[in-house]
């Protein structure tokens, strides 16, 4: 018997909440040896390719600006990120990784790759790619619904 739509929504939410906890626990274990927390690693990861303002990091991560600001300030105090002038906004500085921050993330790389290998071995590469694709689709659908793009 197919679950009702409210049961599907609740089931998806509960599964994602559990996955979030599992991923955070894994991330903590990977980040801890280099002196970072999962949250620190998450903020650093958001600015590896390009510096972003705190609000931009928050949007990317789906968390509050205040949470990102607190973590960015801690990372800045520890020399992992620096605040740079933002040509697009005088007051909203850009967060950029320092050499020390980049080195910390690079140190996580081998353990991260090893865990990724174990996970993909357990699931199979095709299934892992399919799960990733479906999670992105779910996120995109929720974003569209939240922004009213669904026409309601």
Automatic annotation (TrEMBL):
SUPFAM superfamilies assigned to the protein according to its UniProt record, in alphabetical order: Winged helix' DNA-binding domain
Cross-referenced Pfam families: MarR_2 (PF12802)
Any Gene Ontology biological process: response to stress
HTH marR-type domain: residues covered: 5-140
Gene Ontology molecular-function annotations: DNA-binding transcription factor activity
Name under which the protein is recorded: MarR family transcriptional regulator
């Amino acid at each position: 018997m197919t679950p009702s739509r409210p049961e599907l929504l609740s089931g998806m939410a509960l599964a994602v909440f559990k996955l979030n906890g599992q991923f955070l626990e894994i991330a903590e274990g990977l980040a801890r040896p280099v002196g970072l927390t999962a949250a620190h690693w998450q903020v650093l990861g958001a600015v590896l390719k390009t510096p972003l303002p705190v609000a931009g990091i928050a949007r990317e991560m789906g968390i509050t600006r205040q949470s990102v600001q607190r973590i960015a300030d801690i990372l800045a105090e520890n020399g992992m990120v620096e605040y740079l002038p933002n040509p697009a906004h005088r007051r909203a500085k850009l967060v950029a990784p320092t050499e020390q921050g980049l080195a910390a993330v690079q140190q996580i790389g081998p353990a991260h790759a090893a865990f990724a290998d174990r996970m993909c071995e357990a699931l199979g590469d095709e299934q892992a790619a399919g799960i990733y694709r479906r999670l992105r689709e779910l996120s995109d659908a929720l974003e569209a619904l939240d922004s009213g793009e669904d026409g309601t």
